[in-house]
Structure formats: structure tokens, C-alpha cells
Records
---
Amino acid sequence: MPDMDLIAQGLLFPEGPVATSSGTVIVAEIYSGQLTVVDATSGDLDRFAVCGGGPNGVAVGPNGLLYVCNNGGFEWHRMDGLIAPGRQPEDYSGGRIQTVEPASGAVRDLYTTAGAYPLRGPNDLVFDDAGGFWFTDLGKTRRRDSDLGGLYYATADGTSISEVVYPLTQPNGVGLSPDGKRIYVAETGPGRVWAWYVESPGKLVRSGNGPSGAELLWGFDGYQMLDSLAVDSEGNVCVATLISGAISVISPEAKLVEQIRPPEHDPLVTNICFGGPDLRTAYITSSGRGCLYSTRWPVPGLKLAYNL
């Protein structure tokens, strides 16, 4: 088990970490609806943008803007020292994709619908080398029913969005292989990671027997739910695993390599990103406890299409 350093605490359900070249980490605080810069050395926090709703996944786009999956917010619960999201809240503000200007914190809604259908709970996103982005919409849960989710592709300029895979069951983390030819999606409740081959931007090869022709990369035993993910330079899928409170490393050959946990158990470990000069510093969000950790990763992370 690698050593982990506590970088920051007191965060309000941090998600969507983005490591920058200046040594900071940008996180979305879903509970408070804000984006926050964390100084990875001092742990100081600068809450610089108010997105409202529930900012979730964050990525850097080709124009230097931050792109945010906003899930519209949750009900919140406190238990055993943890904070946890719940159902769709009474003040649910709708799902949307937003852009945030890093210097000013200016927020703009980019997409609120996909065709005739409103976005419900956008969750995670990843840009490809063509300048577009894939994103998941997990949907929302209410007292007696819940939404189905999907996988979408959109352009960074706000002019085109398409529903590529529908339905999925609580699609959450999404990532691309190092060559960009394979896309992975984690389903939260079922605990499955699906894979498709990418034919071209926004187009998939449907060669498997899973949803919309997906191939099953890995299905977790027992009660293990999944959250967001990142891919490392060797093509391993590093997926946040709820209940277990771990980052699970799955090889592209469909083998569970290991599970890595923060020092203090948190069933709500939600995400990972890679930074540092050699991309071997992993930043992990322990969201239930409001913490951000760092650790030395065995291999470099995958360099994303766009960075700050």
C-alpha cells in the first residue's frame, strides 16, 4: 500500500480533481456548488467560482476554459462523521454542462438539453484530441423512481451535442485509452466498467453483448459501487470504488491489479487525477470526509488532451 499525504481537508464533498502545472489542484465541491483551487503544498483553499446546483466532473478544454458537469444538486445527509449525497432535492436546478473561466471565475451554461431531452445529472467528462468531449449523465433519483442515464458527445463551442449510448444504469466515470481508440464507462450501482471502441469522434463500434454493444471490462463482486475514473499511461482504468473506499486498478486486459485506499476509511472515495512533472502524483478525493490526498503512483498517469 503506497503512502498517502493529506493535502487538504474541510472540503465540501470534493470531486472532479484537475491537477495544474502550477502545483495546484482544482476540485468541484458538490455540496456548496463551487469550484475551488487547492494549493498542493500548503493546503490553502481558494473558492473562485460559484456554479450552483452540483458541479461534479471537471476538465480543461481546448480554449483553456474549465468544463463542468453540473448534476443539479442533491439532498445531503450526515452520518458517522461523513457527508453523503442523496435524492434529487426540492431546489433541483436541472442538469447542465457549464464553462468556467479560470482567471475570473465567470460561469456560463453551455448545454442544458440533448435534442428534445433535458440533461438530468451530468457526472463526468473527458476530452479527445479532436477537441470534443464525451460525458455521462447519471440521472437523478427520487423517492419512488429514478432516471436512466446515457453517454453523450459534444463540441466545446456549444454547437453540437448527441446522445450516443442510451440507456445505461447510473453511468458515472468516463475515460479514454492512451491511443484514444477505446472509451470506458463505469456504472455506479451495478459496479460494472464497460468498454467500446471509438470509430471517430462521437461514433462507437458496437461489437459486444453489453448495452449498445459494449464489452464488459470488469464487474465487481459483492456490494461495490463505482464512481469516477482516470486512465494511466499503461492503459489501466483507475476507478473510484464506493463502499470499499478504494481506487481499483483494472488492466486493459480485464484483470483487477490492485485496490488502493486512503489511510482513513471513507466509503465515498470518488475520483483520481494525475499531476506533477512526471504525472506520477495521484490526487484522490475522499469526499465523505472532505479530504484531498496525494500519493506516488506506480506508473505515470495518462497525459490528457488539454491541461492548465
---
Amino acid sequence: MNTINQLKVSLICTSMSILLTACGGSGGNDPQPVLPVEPTPIVVDYQKLIDETVTDTIPGIVLLVETPDNKFLGSAGVENIADQNPMQSYHTMPTASAGKPMIALLATILADDNLLNLDESISTWLSDDILTQIAHSEVMTLRQLLNHTSGIYNYVDNDDYIHVFLDEPEKLKTDIDFLSLGLNQQAYFKPGEGQKYSNTGYLLAGLILDNVIGEHHSAALRERILVPLGMNATYYRGIEKEQGDFISGYHIDEGETYETKPYLENVAQASAPVVSSVEDMALFLKRVVVDQSFINSDIRNDYFGSESLNGFIGKESLSGNTAYGHSGLTYGYHTQNIYLEEKELSITAFINCSTQPLCENTMDSLVKEVLANELD
């Protein structure tokens, strides 16, 4: 890669907001809503829309749009440029930060089982060796890691991140391998005194879950969430490689196209945990919002938050609807996952590219057009 700093900006640059964000330079990943409040009435043929969205730089798309009355599940383009294999609607790919809500839900479920306390200091579970390298760790809680109010430095802003990510692609890299990039850094603010998106918080949350469970938290994620919800296409990237395979992803740098899949196959991060399908991602989000039997009221209150307590998933008002969700952007892949409660509308989209700003802008436009059509 020739322009390392430019490429670094586009890797794992995601928003806590359900709305996609522009991510540039040292500005970090602060949510900047881009969707229209009052959509223009239109009628959209979704298959034609995604067919026309595919280009030489956007290889393939999978789109799910579902309400109680209608369902569109379609694909366009290719999942692999070299082989020209058609993209299929069942294909899976790394969902990046769109998987964070699953980690947060697992922590909340374990808290409900009294296996941990979301409001205890992280010193309860982490070693002094780690704690002494984190500003304000003595007053930082697990809840603050999960809802991005800890103030901890975001490790993807470290210039060395791209090297750790790309070097030795055949080696399994887990949370601890990336954590050093977020240590011994100045805090954005003291815990609880602000909100700023930080992937480092989820690395620490992953390590805490490992300590609580006594094994890698992927096992509990499968047992407590994936299996009960019937998310049969979803697995923990890097750790559960035997569970499946995923499509190729692409990034263009200085006119050269790079296939990124080999760099992600052995990376396992709680900040970007799962490989999934659009149907599984939509299923997860819908079930946690509407299914009272899956999570009880205590879990629900912690997970979604309140006026005085930040939740663990994006929640916004959109044209009279309560919209939940999370986007994800990693090296070669872009995900958007949204559920509008009152409309009972699921929108989940995959694009297997990460070139900026093209891929992010394309996802923006795609989701805007779907919303405009569905909210007419």
C-alpha cells in the first residue's frame, strides 16, 4: 500500500449512529446525520436500483428491505472480481462495527445473570499491566466502554494500526493484539463527561467478557444469541472460521484495486466481531427491538438506555419513526443495518468495497432512496 495514512482513515471507520458518517483525518468517528427528515415520495424498483448502483469500483451489493406486507431480498454484481462469481442474496461478509450491538447485548445478558456488573470499574476484571496504561481506568466502567462515554482513545486513529492490521495475515489476531495501539494515549475526556466513538472500548469489553466467561466470548455469543435467534449464517470472524466462508472485499488505492479478504480472515475483534448475512443482521436487530420473550425488561432498559442513561445501540427519530441500528465499515466491506419500529421496516445492505468516499457515499444514497420510498 502506498498511501498508508489515507488507507488507515478508511479502515474500521464507523459510526455509533445508525446514519452513515463522513470520516476524515483526525476528526474521528463522530456521528453526522445525512438522511433527509422528510423523504421525497418516489417509487423504486429495488432490483433495478442495485443493478444500476454496481460499477467498476463497487463490485457487488446485497439488499434486504422487509415489512410485514412486503419483502425484497436481492443481489447485484459480483462477489469476486477475478472469478466474476455473481453476488448472491445469501452471501456473507464481515459486518465490522455493525456487530458491536451483539457484544453489548451479550454483556447485558451476563449482567442480568449476575455474572458481572456493568457499573463496576474495569479494574474488577483487567490486569494492572493494562490498567496502568489507561487514563482514568480507576473510575471507568464497562457500561462506559459499551456506550462510548469512557473517553478512551480510539485505537484505529493510531498511525501504526494499518501495519498491525495488514502484517502477517496468516496469524490469528485478537483483541489483545490491537489493544497496545490504544494504550498510553491521552483520553478524550474523563469517563462519563462526554461521548465519543471508540473501538478501543470494545477491545477492552471483549477481554472483560473473556475473563468473566473463562474462555473466548465467541462461545457465549453463539450460545446466548446466535443459536437462540437462529442466526445460522453468522459466526465470529477469525475464531469460528470453520463455520463458513465470506465473499471478497475490495479497496482501491492510487488507482490499484486490492482484494482485502486475506487480511480479514484471521482477525477476531470484539470491535468488529461477526461475519453475517443481510437476513441474519436484520433478524437480530428486529428481534432485540420487538421480541419481549428474547430479552427481559431489565436487559432491555440497559440495552436501549433512557433519557439519563446512554444505550448500547444507535437510536434516533426519523420521520415519526423510532429508528435503531448501526453501520459498519472495514477494509473492503460496508454494512448498514436499520430497523424502524413503528413502520416495522428492516433495511440491511452490504457492499463489498471500502474506497472512500465513493463506497460510503454510495451506501448513503442507496439507503436514502430506500427510506424515501418506504416512508412515502
---
Amino acid sequence: MKRLHSGISTATLLGVFIMMVGAPGLAQSQDYYGAKPYVSPYYDPLFPEDNDYEPEDEVLTDSKLRALIITDLGISPFVNRDDIYVSVKNGIATLSGDVDDRSEMIDAVEIAYDAGAWRVQNKLHRREVSDRPWAELSDRELAREIERELSLSPFVNSAYITVHVREGVATLYGGVENTGEIADAVENAYEAGAKRVKSRLWVDHELS
């Protein structure tokens, strides 16, 4: 190895030079990774409490699911999000508040399923109720009407759905092929005349 007249090797001088100037590309690399902080594509400045997304976290937590439902309700032209409150626990979404009509109620429930909820508890109420078909039918008659609507629906497999009615409130039990079928079954129950519909339906992948 060559040495300079002072007795210092060229390798030593090269090491000192790199320490002073920096390795090629090092400064550029540091500037690149520190240039911009991560901003979630779901960020909503109007609702900062719902913006807890992490880029490396792919798990749909309760808070993230709630944020997705709220966002989707907000952009839907068929739902007034201001009057709907959303809570999520263990993947189960609960919708409460007021809606204008049955159609808005069904849309809100379907949006919650589409966002990723594995079950939706519908506690929404209609502001004005002009018709009262459940008041004209006994619970048994109403259950039969709902079962008839389900059996006639081209979008629902009623073979695995059980209907229970009490004081005009219908509860649907059983397995379905997908979340869209859950929304259709709930809509059928309302069309049959139910005062309110509770869904205890779940997606059974063995049926698909």
C-alpha cells in the first residue's frame, strides 16, 4: 500500500474524506425519506377523530370500520348522514338515529355491510310513518307475509332463513351467500309490512 511523505496512507485519507463529505447518495437518500410525511388517502379533516389509519396496518379495526361507514354514508346521495349515529364493536356495526323513509334505512344498512361490517344492528327510526300495515296484521300473519316475500325474491335463498315476529318487529335468522342478500332480505321484510327488521343473518361461505 502506498504511503504519502507524511506517513499517512491513501486509504486513511480516503476514509477521512468520506466522513467529511458523506458517502455518495447518502444525503439524497435521507432527504427523500424525510421529504413528505405519510398522509392517509382516507384522511377527513372534518372528522379528525376518525383518522387513525396506519400505512402498515391492514387490519380493519372497529375504529377504522366506523370511519369507513361514516365516510360512505357521507358520500351517498341517498342517505342523510347528519342524523345517523354509527358505533362499532367487534365488527358489529350499530346504526341509530332518524331517516326519512324505509328506502333510506335500507340504503344505510347496506352501506354498513359494504364497508366491511359482518353484522349490522338496525336501530334507525322513520321520522314519519303514514302507513301501519303491521297494525292490521297479527304477528303470525305478518311472519307469513315476510316468508312469502322472501320465497318470491329472486335475490334471496329463503331455504335457510327463519322469520320471527313480535309486536310488528321482525327478526331474521339464518345463513346467506353474501352481504347483498342480507340487505335484500331486510328489504323484503319491510315490503311485507314489518314495523322494524332486526337482522341476525350471517354470511355462510358453504352456501356459495
